[in-house]
Amino acid sequence: MNRRILTLMVALVPIVVFGVLLAVVTVPFVSLGPGPTFDTLGEVDGNPVVAIEGTQTHPTTGHLNMTTVSQRDEISLGEALTLWLSDTEQLVPRDLVYPPGKSRDEVDKANNADFKQSEDSAEYAALGYLKYPAAVTVASVADPGPSVGKLKSGDAIDAVDGKPVANVDQFTGFLKATKPGQVVTIDFRRKNAPAGVAQITLGSNKDRDYGFMGVAVLDAPWAPFVVDFNLANVGGPSAGLMFSLAVVDKLTTGDLAGSNFIAGTGTISVDGKVGQIGGITHKMVAAHAAGATVFLVPAKNCYEANSDNPSGMRLVKVETLSQAVDALHAITSGGQPPAC
């Protein structure tokens, strides 16, 4: 064999081996970057992102976009190097995203549960801001369980055996006086339906010696109409603030966004407090790329957001839903909302 060809082949071997390693070997890192944004006043797949049925809604303008962070797992060494050199992607140890001892499916299910919780909290926070009265509200019904087919998530419980209940403590107090096998009468209100009465035979539970109804309840603002959030496959709780703002916007004549393209992020609690989130800079990049000029930032994320705002978006600090609504009113009227 020609010595020159042999030398070339020997030189190519490590290059080929390195190329295979780049393509085949995976690294224990996850890539985080800007994810898709969704206008909570708009539609996805032909359905309103926030749908309200059973009451009058009002026209809206502008944008109220929720933002997300994209994740890429099981990335190769070559992909990791490429992403590391990019300006928008961030590599973090995989254990920070998928803790040891938990499968990817388990983490994804937990994120989806957090997202569902954020939807419920967003509805309650918006209804509370709009001054709807509180009720003992069914958050979930255990299946199987004594209340399946009799009560539904979203029902308001008004009385137990003819005794009015004003809050969860009273409701629990009445239940503690019952025994397994006892039949109780529940007066309830259901959204977009007439009030009803349910006869429920209480079950047993190893954690208590009194009757088990199989419902989780909470004190929350209640309205007779239905609020649905038609956005799937988006995990985590950080959409809460923007969902709440969309509900408020549709139920009032204030036209919160005006002609502005507003984006933002933040968890929301039942009482309307806005909480800190992760990935704020990635979300800001996504918002700017989508066309946003204003970004609503949870107060505890302001330092991080200000440290990296190459887009020059207007950063508005929010601590509560009420403050966010006031800030949007200020923006549309030419005023000065709280800045980060």
From TrEMBL:
<feature type="active site">
    <location>
        <position position="283"/>
    </location>
</feature>
<dbReference type="InterPro" id="IPR020568">
    <property type="entry name" value="Ribosomal_Su5_D2-typ_SF"/>
</dbReference>
<dbReference type="InterPro" id="IPR001478">
    <property type="entry name" value="PDZ"/>
</dbReference>
<keyword id="KW-0720">Serine protease</keyword>
<keyword id="KW-0378">Hydrolase</keyword>
<dbReference type="GO" id="GO:0005524">
    <property type="term" value="F:ATP binding"/>
</dbReference>
<dbReference type="InterPro" id="IPR036034">
    <property type="entry name" value="PDZ_sf"/>
</dbReference>
<protein>
    <recommendedName>
        <fullName>endopeptidase La</fullName>
        <ecNumber>3.4.21.53</ecNumber>
    </recommendedName>
</protein>
<dbReference type="InterPro" id="IPR027065">
    <property type="entry name" value="Lon_Prtase"/>
</dbReference>
<dbReference type="GO" id="GO:0004252">
    <property type="term" value="F:serine-type endopeptidase activity"/>
</dbReference>
<dbReference type="Pfam" id="PF05362">
    <property type="entry name" value="Lon_C"/>
</dbReference>
<dbReference type="Pfam" id="PF13180">
    <property type="entry name" value="PDZ_2"/>
</dbReference>
<dbReference type="GO" id="GO:0004176">
    <property type="term" value="F:ATP-dependent peptidase activity"/>
</dbReference>
<comment type="similarity">
    <text>Belongs to the peptidase S16 family.</text>
</comment>
<dbReference type="GO" id="GO:0030163">
    <property type="term" value="P:protein catabolic process"/>
</dbReference>
<dbReference type="InterPro" id="IPR008269">
    <property type="entry name" value="Lon_proteolytic"/>
</dbReference>
<dbReference type="GO" id="GO:0006508">
    <property type="term" value="P:proteolysis"/>
</dbReference>
<dbReference type="InterPro" id="IPR014721">
    <property type="entry name" value="Ribsml_uS5_D2-typ_fold_subgr"/>
</dbReference>
<keyword id="KW-0645">Protease</keyword>
<feature type="domain" description="Lon proteolytic">
    <location>
        <begin position="233"/>
        <end position="331"/>
    </location>
</feature>
<feature type="active site">
    <location>
        <position position="238"/>
    </location>
</feature>
